[in-house]
Amino acid sequence: MTAKLLLTTLLPLVADLSRELPESERYRRLLEAMRALLPCDAAALLRLDGDWLVPLAVDGLSLDTLGRRFKVSEHPRFDVLLSSPGPTRFPSNCDLPDPYDGLVDGLAEHLEIHDCMGCPLFIDEKPWGLLTLDALDPKRFEPIELDALQAFASLAAATVNVAQRIERLALRVEDEQLKAELYRQAHGTPNKELIGQSKAHKRLLDEIALVGSSDLTVLITGETGVGKELVAQAIHAASPRADKPMVSLNCAALPDTLVESELFGHVRGAFTGAMNDRRGKFELANGGTLFLDEVGELSLTVQAKLLRVLQSGQLQRLGSDQEHRVDVRLIAATNRDLAEEVRSGRYRADFYHRLSVYPLKVPALRERGRDVLLLSGFFLEQNRSRMGLGSLRLSPDAQAALVRYDWPGNVRELEHLIGRSALKALGNCSTRPRILTLTAQDLDLPSREVIETATAPPPPPPAAAGDLRQATEAYQRQLISACLERHTHNWASAARELGLDRANLGRMAKRLGLK
To answer: Where is each Sigma-54 factor interaction domain found (predicted)?
Structure first.
């Protein structure tokens, strides 16, 4: 081996030490350089993980080698290499079975007499893994001095060390960003506590305290706007994981491909726009809680992948074969009837049962009686502070109107109503008051009669003069129109009530002349 060849081979690796490269690319270049320096037919870099060796990069071996896990006690050659303080070359007629038998590219028959050597890698004086080299020519490594492999192993250890340090720095940056985001969420808005004194609300608090102390997966159900995310936060706060992060993801806000990336993370080049490795929500929530809102919107494909993580605690980033183990407590929420979704074939039964280990139903606001006034007081004080008023209060007729109303939008509707009414009432004042009183007229809530008329099912259509198809289309047209009116022409909400995909509803409406 000439000094020029040595220098030409090693200089790019030394330069790589100061470059930001994906871990897989860094290790690929390492093996490429080693094969140029020490010609062989196959090379591998393996990391020691307990009693197992995990391939991180291979060159000249079949791709499926990366998915294998070699138990050291079952592979005596690996055991010998790990027990040695330096490089080891096995005799060409060594009768110890070779772990790569059948895995060398282009070799159909068994890997019998051949040349084989390897070297352990040490990081901080502790065994980290192995470098292995195999050649089909039984005399290939005779001219190679073991010191050359030892020198290369030292450079390989430095490369691994740099890769790990870069990974730790990247994780630290990501963790700090997560902490900053959690701090912003916690301190950027007033603390939204669970307020109420009704029996239904107290039962909910008792269940939160009960399940919070466990590690069970919780499925929170309830109508839109009842405060399912607040319940999830309360469960996390009551758990032993309270000092760890709670990471949230709205499953309805992203398409399937991005949901997978958000949940499981991705590696560089996994898809267009994936410029760097990125951890997913599961890894960010490791040790803490992951809250999946609108879990009923997940596709069957994503459900299957989530099920695997829930069963094994292991995941793979998009575009990667490497598995990551996570310890995450899962809390999910939905306003859908998932049992009915399972019966209709739109939801996986096995995934549903994994989610609903502890089902927790949040009562609707109309079931909580005078809690509506306590919640109103909370929102009134928020708006008083925001608007710079001395006091913001409700008149007796406004309180009565709030208690009478059925609240189809629940607590979220109440919050928006108080904010909107306070702003309008202040705008109607000729001079800025110190005390602003909201009346029933300011709230402008519909009467019970109007509500009942709006929510009543549509009357049956009159007998059609045409055939069955025309009568069916007339009824569909009337049903869809009434549903759109109830949801103020929110097509997504109407589609959910009708049990249709939003795109299918749009196409049907267009065919019926409603668009």
So the answer is: 194-423
